[in-house]
């Protein structure tokens, strides 16, 4: 993997701030409309159809406060699969670090909310899920190429 291929402008503090603000706005719209607004992601290099978005809420590992992130997800039976890509950033997203400290999470899809336990997929599970995730959102492959870290695949399921 060649991290140098990651567009430099993505590492700008301004871009990071815009992404944070966009996530907060998306979360507010999603909650206010039960997912009618903000419930799909329509941006991507090879996006064939809108990708579904859920709201993942973790407990802040430092603050102890709930933290919510809108994420593309894959439904796999009763499980929800999310990707800790952070756009190919060299660091894991805060929500991923939070669930490592406390794996109890909630996921909102539309107006439904699920209390779940999150865990990082094993290597075999990741190998099985990754092609399905890329089929859902092709940019995951670009993000994977931009970073030297292995992008975690997270499985959220009932305890």
UniProtKB/TrEMBL annotation:
It catalyses: oxidized coenzyme F420-(gamma-L-Glu)(n) + a quinol + H(+) = reduced coenzyme F420-(gamma-L-Glu)(n) + a quinone. Coiled coil: none annotated. InterPro entries: F420H2_quin_Rdtase, Split_barrel_FMN-bd. Pfam families: F420H2_quin_red. PANTHER family: DEAZAFLAVIN-DEPENDENT NITROREDUCTASE, F420H(2)-DEPENDENT QUINONE REDUCTASE RV1261C. Belongs to the F420H(2)-dependent quinone reductase family. NCBIfam families: hi_GC_TIGR00026. This is Nitroreductase family deazaflavin-dependent oxidoreductase.
């Amino acid at each position: 993997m060649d991290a140098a291929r990651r567009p430099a402008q993505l590492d700008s503090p301004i871009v990071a701030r815009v992404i944070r603000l966009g996530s907060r706005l998306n979360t507010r719209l999603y909650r206010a409309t039960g997912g009618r607004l903000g419930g799909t992601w329509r941006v991507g290099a090879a996006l064939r159809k809108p990708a579904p978005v859920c709201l993942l809420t973790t407990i802040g590992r430092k603050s102890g406060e709930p933290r919510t992130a809108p994420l593309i997800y894959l439904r796999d039976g009763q499980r929800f699969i999310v990707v800790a890509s952070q756009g190919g950033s060299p660091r894991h997203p805060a929500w991923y670090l939070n669930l490592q400290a406390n794996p109890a999470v909630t996921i909102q899809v539309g107006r439904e909310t699920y209390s779940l336990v999150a865990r990082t997929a094993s290597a075999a599970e990741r190998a099985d899920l990754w092609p399905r995730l890329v089929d859902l959102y092709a940019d995951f492959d670009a993000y994977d190429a931009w970073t030297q870290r292995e992008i975690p695949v997270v499985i959220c399921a009932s305890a």
